[in-house]
Amino acid sequence: MRRSYRFLLRPTSRQAAALAACLEDHRTLYNAALEHRRTAYAKAGVSVRYGDQSAELKHIRGDDPGGQGRWSFSSQQATLRRLDKAFRAFFDRVKAGRTPGYPRFKGRGRFDTVEWPKDGDGCRWDSQPGHPAATFVRLQGIGHVRVNQYRPVRGRVKTISVKREGARWYVVLSYDDVPAEPLPPAGAVAGIDMGVASLVTTSDGGRVANPRHLAATADRLAAAQRDLARKKRGSKRRRKQVARVAALHAKVRRQRLDHAHKAALALVGDYDLIVHEDLRIANMTRSASGTIEAPGCNVAAKAGLNRSILDAGWGVFLTILAYKAESAGRKLIVVNPAGTSRTCARCGHCAKENRVSQASFVCTACGHAAHADVNAAVNILRAGLALRDAAEAA
């Protein structure tokens, strides 16, 4: 099993400056490689591949020993592979007939990660194992950087990445062969319905609250963004205000992630089998149909619903739930969401009129009344059990 760990770095002021220089040089390399590909095709009709650019990297490092030559060769190859991956995704979208989205040059705010693809090649995790009280990661050109390791890690280190978020630096470790940590049987199963009023509603009536972190910070964010709008572009004050806005968004993201971890851990501990809907969140949060000249119906209401769904963090929660269930030896089943909120859990009658309001469900056929989310969760559980029985019978 593969797992990622993320820890806060505690660099000195000199190491922080070196980390920023490393990130900037990798961004410059990415943009130069992109320009190379664009120019070669535009001027000569030649497609430049990753292998061609990787072969030229040795000469680039030799000509710039105080710049590109300072950093790990393998990390620079990872940056070139990142560009190659962007081009392959571009051509795949072209072949599929979708909006292609040509790879773009990376500004300072759009390039925040450097990856070392192998532990020991330009980097070393736990580089001072004899230290009695701290963990360090060694990065070529930067040195031994202290890590705030708050939990043990298990398995074999595959890749090491450094990421900048605002004024903070994080190390992200990708581990292979992580041993599972199975939990004892709970003796219960559940279907879960994702919502906005409650983040999760279970088929037995349990609820996980939706803390609405973004809504709670909305006033502070609005004030910070108004201050930002008044700052002159390129000024020192504007850069500071951009950092303040980014820090507020980062705090909301960390709060949402923390709540998702706690909620998923509680569910995994309480149930042996968990069933949820296969939600297409990107489709659900698209803007209301229409144009600027002829907007669609209920545009403001749709925008508010989209904001609430994204604030709830359904995608983050379901991703965390999946890997926690795998680690704990629990079974997770994903079902088609069609009709789960309109179907009566007692008689099976499906009609739009059954859903009286956001919270109320009253079947027009048999009169069964229940909370709408609980009714949907029961239908989700039933569909999941049917899929499990069919798989076992096969």
Automatic annotation (TrEMBL):
Cas12f1-like TNB domain location: 314-380
Every Transposase putative helix-turn-helix domain range: 1-43
Alphabetically ordered keywords of this record: DNA recombination, DNA-binding, Metal-binding, Transposition, Zinc
Domain Probable transposase IS891/IS1136/IS1341 stretches: 180-287
Top-level taxon in the UniProt lineage: Bacteria
Presence of keyword Metal-binding: yes
Recorded coiled-coil stretches: none
Similarity annotation: In the C-terminal section; belongs to the transposase 35 family. In the N-terminal section; belongs to the transposase 2 family.
Protein name: Transposase
Source organism of this protein record: Nonomuraea coxensis DSM 45129
